[in-house]
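COMPLEX REQUEST
Ligand: nicotinamide-adenine-dinucleotide
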Amino acid sequence: MPAGDLYVGGVWEKGTGAEIVSIFPADGSVNRTLTGASVTDGERAIERAKAAQADPSWCNLKPHERARFLYAIADGIEADAARIAHIQSRDTGKTLRETGALAASAAGTFRYFGAVAETMDETLTSQRGDALTMSVHEPLGLVAAITPWNSPIASDAQKVAPALAAGNAVLLKPASWSPLVALELARIVEQAGLPPGLFSVLPGAGREIGNLLVEHPDIAKVSFTGGTDTGRALAVKAAKKLMPVSLELGGKSPTIVFDDAEMDQALAGVMFGIFSSSGQSCIAGSRLFVHRSIFDTFVGRLVAATKRLTIGHPFEPGTQVAPLVHFDHRDAVARDVAMALEDGAEILTGGREPEGSAYEKGAYFMPTILAGAANDARICQREVFGPVLAVLPFEDEDDVIAQANANDYGLACGIWTTDFPKSWRVGRAISAGTVWVNTYKQFSISTPFGGEKDSGVGREKGREGVRAYMAQKGIYVDLTGTPHPWAAETVSGR
Ligand code: NAD
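STATUS: Structure written out below.
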């Protein structure tokens, strides 16, 4: 495990804020107890970041030279991928298979944004007067990245890589349930030789260090991933200082199975969409709409296959469903299931902790399928962030579009059909930042990602992802070489 509590602008320090206890949710053992960042620690990180970002050796560095640091960080992550995966599995309870993939994805993200930095072009705009006109981009200065616990190394990389590629300094605040992998990232960044001050990792309480990063006048942008309520409160504070924010928030994503779908493909995709990561995924396909003509058959097969999923220890290679991140979170998921029953849902499978000695000490919860709740019931409207799927029938295309859109969130959608024009019509009609057709939860760093409605503001990833951390500047250069006619005679005294 990383040795320090905080990485304050290039210096490993003990924190002076709230205590953080990272546990291994498979058995409740303590990974590490650390002292998080206080406001004073955060202010010190901001001072170091300001000095480092303003240093000509960074702010005047050419993008292709900045890119070298990103490539070195990518190399460092790849070299230590197994260790990173292990730390993240201890911190979050996710399977090693998954955390290994997240580490590989983080390395790819740094490599991609290094390449973007090297190949970004500025624009010579079309000339409409006697000046050469162009539009260029410059770093914002200090960027704060605030991330959740569910996929830390990947969500950290998604913010840190483009913000550094853009020439900023970055202050990263990970979630308190998963602080360790961000500290490991700091170790790799340090080894990659990034000048001290440009990167800080500040685990700590949201209301303390998180709040400082949002309200501090020297922070030029906050890129936030987390819950909608937190994001909304943060945006209000940001508005007061007119600071731009990117918000990647919650979801209640619909998956839609038409009667012409390829059934085995749809079943596997629906199960992967909701039950992988034990449902702790912003894009989890947690509302399933099945065409009424195949509802009973499809749901019957889905329930049978769900019962066959392997629930187990995160380090067992065969495990499909690992424990939830924390016992408190497991209890919150159980309360949501109880709430669904109050609202008229019935449990088709799961709905409780698994039985058996292997599960006794861990924060396990069974993959759960609920039927019978109306689309406006709380279980179909609110994010559970656990392995809980609500199933509903639909009549036709118009009906499913209306039902899918009758929700405050708009993060993702899955459509299962062999009719391409239908997938196109439905995909375009659903309010969602991402639509998957006959697949689910596939990601590419080159494809912009983000939410609509309560699922967020702004997009991450893609070439434009770097621009989200830059300020745009128009430049006009005179081509006439003569005094402006408005004052030409005055100036010459005629
Ligand atoms: P959360 O909102 O509780 O916390 C997210 C981060 O915000 C944490 O680091 C937390 O410490 C910090 N925070 C809390 N209060 C704060 C405050 N007042 N000021 C500043 N920072 C504060 O979310 P969580 O429980 O860690 O994560 C789960 C949520 O994240 C789910 O809603 C999930 O959908 C969402 N999520 C979204 C995406 C996406 O890309 N859209 C990806 C992953 C997770």
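REMARKS: The chain has a mean pLDDT of 97. The chain has two domains: 6-248+463-476, 254-437.
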